[in-house]
Amino acid sequence: MSSLQKCETCGQYFEPLYVDLVPLLRAAISDVAMQIVNTRPGPLPFPPADPPAAAQPITFGHLSAGLPPAAAAVAPARIRSTTPIIIDMQPNTPVLPAPSLDDSSSDGTPGREVSVPVKGCKRAHYSAMELEELVRITIEENPFGAKHGEKGATWKRVAQRLKALGYFRTSSAETIKHKLMSLIAYQEDPESHAGSKVACEMAGTCGIKIAALLDCISEMQNTAATQTEEQKECTQVKAEQDHIGGEAIHNASMRTLRRKRDDLTDSDSDVENKPPVGRQSKKACRSLSTTAQAGSSMGDLSDLKDILVEDGKKRDERQQEMVETLKESTRVYERTSEKYLAAILQLSKQQ
């Protein structure tokens, strides 16, 4: 009877029921705190009591307490709890699924962008021939001396000419510009951050030739930094004139070289067909008849005539080519002179 307690109302004995309600109270308090109350903030529905110890029992009164006398008489004399009370303490917060990598949601609206880490790509390596062509074409186009608003178009022309030669096929004009600026930085200071990016490519004998061309680019940069827009235009016209005239001279030189090579080939074939110098023809030692000598003379004259006619045709063709070359050079000179004169007149009017 030591574990039984006496009811103060009916005087009967009962066994107390021990239930640990601390976890249940904590869960209820957290659920109430998470609710949004639109009214004026006030105290909680019930004050949080100090939780007792985990093993501290909670004593309840008899079930018949507070009932009318008739209902209290019907209540059992003793209530014994034989079934343990199990409280589910699993968290009531739903577990969200892992985010999908698909950009679109189920209703067709675009989903939130998910950032995916990108691994670093390997730096592109260019050969010495590619770098040399890059520097050479840059010197010809001179993007540093272009007027304001035309530098981007000049760099695009540099990229197009390089790609036409089979170089920098997957590189943009901006990438090509950065590569050239790295070469210039290496020329000025090989230990700099930008110059160290091309240190391996500039090593060896190929870097010496590229360095000589980079000196010319540095001079172009310094000149362009001190020029006005009008002076840049005059310089660009003069460079275009030199480029067109140089192409005309180059084409004429190539045609002359091909003609000389053809003449040398024909001369070599004639020398091979000649008899040896120390060996005389047996016909010269024989005594020929008058008819035979006359026939031989007529044949030699006929061959000589054909040779002279063929030589005259070749001379006429060469003279015609030279005349066409001179005409083309004259037309180029007139066009460039007109542009140069117009630029000078415009500059004089502005002054």
UniProtKB/TrEMBL annotation:
Biased composition (Polar residues) is annotated at 287-296
The region called Disordered is annotated at 90-116, 239-303
What's this protein's name? Uncharacterized protein
Q: Mind giving the lineage of the organism this protein is from?
A: Eukaryota, Fungi, Dikarya, Basidiomycota, Agaricomycotina
